[in-house]
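Journal club prep — side note

Before the paper discussion, L.F. wants everyone to see what a predicted structure for a comparable chain looks like in token form. Sequence:
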Amino acid sequence: GSKAWATSISQNYGSLLTGATDTIFFDDFETAKGWTFTGEFERNQIIMQWDTIPTYSYSGQYCIGTDLSRQGANKGMYEPNVTWFAQSPIIDLASYSNLTLYAWRWHKIAAGDTAMVQASSNGTSWETLFSTGGTAVTHENWDIDTIPIPNSLANSGTLYIRFVLKSNGDANVAEGINFDNVWITGTRFNSETAWLQSPCFDFSGVANPIIDLSIFNRTEPEVDGTTLYYSTDNGETWQHVGNSATHDDYFNWYTDSLVSALGVDG
């Protein structure tokens, strides 16, 4: 009747997050696909010598790694006191969650030096997903890394991956870090926005109306959430209730974080 609440959701919350698991990004480095390299990090064929690591690419003829072409003062090895990285091109993650990075890797790193895997939604601020933490690493062959990517990094719909080698200032160096066949998988989700709409309240003659409600929240951290809107024109247009806009200071609605799925505070 006239006092009924209306809702838009056509599926339950769990079903909105399920779907096919797809390979969103894949690179075997046989062709150049827009990676950015610094220092002696490179995409290349392996130039073999007695001390070469890796001794072969995981697939095809090309891989990426530090000093594959035997540059610099330490041929086939990284140099002291450097930070080098290989950064992926922009990866489109629109409509995906539950992200996982896979990479075949073959490393040899001296104690005190560090390999890291980082991710960014904008190519500027980076989150470290994995670090060797200064521990010496010696791999005898190719092995696969499986690294979960926080969904909070995918909120903007774009992602960059970066492989980093950071060496200290001593002369103890090694062959470095190498990668082949890098890919990202994710689960496609339904981006439907659910809403619950009240009946129309008559505030005629009421000064300073107040809404009082209890909330139970069980949603994906840093991604999903709830926000409050109001309408004064029978639902034709809606205004977000929050402190971010000066004309809403009157309401003093408490906003503790950004609801990334909605793009507003909630």
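L.F.'s comment for the group: Residues 247-252 have pLDDT under 50 and may be disordered. Keep this in mind when we get to the figures.
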